[in-house]
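quick one: pyridoxal-5'-phosphate bound model?
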Amino acid sequence: MFSPSAAAGGVVSARLARLTGRLDGIGDALGFPAACDVDWSPLAEIFTRGLLNNLGDPFVDGLYPFHTKDVERDAIGIIADLFHAPADDRWGYVAGNASEAALYGLDLAARLHPNAVVLHSAAAHPAISKAARLARLRSVVLRTDPRGELDYDDFADQVAARRDRPIVVVANAGSTFSEAVDDVRRITTILDELAVPSERRLVLVDAALSGIPLATLDPTERPGFDFADGADCIFVSGHKFLATPMPCAAVIVRASLRARAPVVSYTGAPDATISTSRNGHAALAVWYALTIFGRDGLTARAVNARDLAAHLHTALGEQGWPAWRNPHAMTVTLATPPHDIRGRWGLADHGGRSHIVCAPGVTRDRVTTFLAELADHTPTPEPGRVNGQAVNVNGRRVPRQLRPSAPAAVGGDHR
Ligand SMILES: *Cc1c(COP(=O)(O)O)cnc(C)c1O
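yep, here:
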């Protein structure tokens, strides 16, 4: 093993002490969807051994022996079950992040349908239009309702106008700003009604934020977002609800679609993934989180997160602070707090609205402290504007003819 010189060792320990000090000094953030309720120390020994590289296809071990593909396959199986992927028609892998997973989905779309048009809503994460651009596919941005859910009439109109083209839809299962969920059952029905054949369509679901919590809902309440509802490919982040200590995401796809777009092999395992060398620690972390929680633990964490968000929403209402929350969301959207409060709690400002994510690890005490700080202030008078420009719930500029006469997006209660 290499051992550093005394001088280098001194530089490193001083720098690490400074870094640790900065990280320790970070206050309580509320604006990010990153859960932080897992103790990762049981993985310390394996995390410090050295390289773990899951090269290419996780379902072929390949030549390089230091990998975690065996646990990766288990992790993919657990998530595929949660998303009702057909037992005999599923494949997936742990990608570097949800952006890579989106690129996987849209690259598959481009290989299957080079002439496809990609439809996604204005509430889609910027990673979606970026992935469409990288895959050289044209994308069309669709309207949403005031709470960030796809406008199905606009969707139907845009599909009807492109009957000659293969249609690729990217639905949100938990939009970044408001955790809006696009109804994949309705999307599938519209594609059926407009006679878009299954060979000329692909439905991708960006479930980066909410895929796991939505999957834990009772079937009577669960929105339509998974394979049973018509999805062909779903991706979900590891570093959001699952709290993994590095960015990562799982992508699950119908294996039969992949088979129609074959890939080459050169590392002893097919190069079936966007990144060839892949993080074996990340795959292990996803499996570890899923396994220590189990389905009951995942459900309990989702229930707690939603309960805390419901409490925050109610308390904001009682304080006269405009706020709303989508069904099943752990995110509360509120009129943007004053600048200093925003800075202290790490809250973004899109169009006079901010959001608080009650991700697992956010405590009721933290929410109580935030509410107490906010109690001394009054909300900004005009949510829905940035620098004098009207913006929608997604923080985008609103075309003049679509502007509501009154700001409709920040209301008082549940839908
Ligand atoms: C976070 C997020 C992404 C992007 O994920 P990365 O892992 O940061 O690349 C995409 N979509 C949604 C809905 C997200 O919340």
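The chain is about 35% helix and 15% strand.
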